[in-house]
Backbone:
């Protein structure tokens, strides 16, 4: 699925700001439990869980819980 977001012109002209906004959205959604670890990883385009773990730690977000969905996704990644 693709979602289109209308951004103010001044924000849209700065790709770095747009990327920061996406990261902030992902962090907030993960913290609130609206996104799982897997969903957050995919949204941010990280190929591995380790990349996401590093990103979360950089932003002071510690792992909430490792779900069955996360385990299944990680086992598929390993294969």
Residues:
């Amino acid at each position: 699925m693709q979602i289109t977001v209308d951004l103010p012109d001044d924000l849209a002209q700065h790709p770095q700001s747009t990327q920061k906004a996406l990261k902030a959205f992902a962090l907030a959604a993960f913290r609130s439990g609206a996104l799982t670890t897997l969903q957050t990883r995919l949204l941010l385009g990280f190929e591995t869980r380790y990349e996401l773990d590093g990103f979360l730690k950089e932003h002071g977000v510690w792992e909430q819980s490792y779900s069955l969905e996360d385990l299944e996704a990680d086992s598929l990644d390993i294969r």
